[in-house]
């Protein structure tokens, strides 16, 4: 049975659970449930603190886990990213009151407050910058006002929290993060892990693409399939109505309206879009 860690709270938790559910797994119904066996799918889920997940996976106690790239790198655990999950996207950045620093070089001698001390220390060491790292649990944006730090390094998504505290980012982002599936470099249950990966990839594809169907005159088929090339090749079937074919292709959800307009302009009719409930490519 594959043993998998799932975030039990915080920004990653809800999206991780929704994704597992869409992938056909049993998910917990109440937040007091910490361990859940999904016997039908040969998998056991452990609901754990997001920050601890890479540690469990790296130590070999659990086979895989869902966490953030920033948490994985901060932990220094012997685990690596095996799939990007596309949710909880954020950057990890330095910030301060305007005028205090312009680039990483200005960090020398400063006090830097963060919840990600491992990540910040590694970043400073790579650049041979000597600075003091003040490790805090959260709400680090307030630490400058309260006088314990000159600079912060924290998760930035919309930038609202920083703005509310009168802070501005400086320098290049330390990291671009998102939810990821992590596992050990040489997993023991490789086949079972592959099934989990394939199921989660299926959810990502089903969210990213839609299925498009349309009818078009045979002589326009080459031009039409340039607009909808599909992932490998579109399906083209003859229609009872002579001179026409039906085309079916996956298209990116994001561009579907532009694609429909283009196809209609070319002469396609009966253009239908349907959601993909699940897939294995
Ligand atoms: N506003 C946000 N937008 C996107 N991702 C975020 C945001 N805040 C935190 N994260 C991500 O969530 C993970 C941290 O999860 P964790 O549960 O430790 O903190 P949290 O989401 O801030 O929750 P809490 O503050 O309730 O502890 C990291 O991967 C981080 O990048
Ligand atoms: O750029 P924004 O959209 O404002 O999001 C970023 C904020 O979200 C998270 O904080 P959270 O509310 O989880 O509090 P925390 O600092 O206590 O973790 C993160 O730590 C930042 O503070
Ligand atoms: Mg937080």
UniProtKB/TrEMBL annotation:
Residues 49-201 form the ATP phosphoribosyltransferase catalytic domain. It comes from Mobilicoccus caccae. One of its GO terms (molecular function) is glycosyltransferase activity. It catalyses: 1-(5-phospho-beta-D-ribosyl)-ATP + diphosphate = 5-phospho-alpha-D-ribose 1-diphosphate + ATP. Pfam families: HisG (PF01634), HisG_C (PF08029). Feedback inhibited by histidine. This is ATP phosphoribosyltransferase. Pathway: Amino-acid biosynthesis; L-histidine biosynthesis; L-histidine from 5-phospho-alpha-D-ribose 1-diphosphate: step 1/9. The keyword Cytoplasm applies. Its cofactor is Mg(2+). Residues 206-277 form the Histidine biosynthesis HisG C-terminal domain. Signal peptide: none annotated. Its EC number is 2.4.2.17. Belongs to the ATP phosphoribosyltransferase family. Long subfamily. It is found in: Cytoplasm. Catalyzes the condensation of ATP and 5-phosphoribose 1-diphosphate to form N'-(5'-phosphoribosyl)-ATP (PR-ATP). Has a crucial role in the pathway because the rate of histidine biosynthesis seems to be controlled primarily by regulation of HisG enzymatic activity. Keywords: Amino-acid biosynthesis, ATP-binding, Cytoplasm, Glycosyltransferase, Histidine biosynthesis, Magnesium, Metal-binding, Nucleotide-binding, Transferase. It is an enzyme of class 2 (transferase). The lineage of its organism: Bacteria, Bacillati, Actinomycetota, Actinomycetes, Micrococcales. InterPro entries: ATP-PRT_HisG_long, ATP_PRibTrfase_cat, ATP_PRibTrfase_CS, ATP_PRibTrfase_HisG, HisG_C, N-reg_PII-like_a/b, N-reg_PII/ATP_PRibTrfase_C.
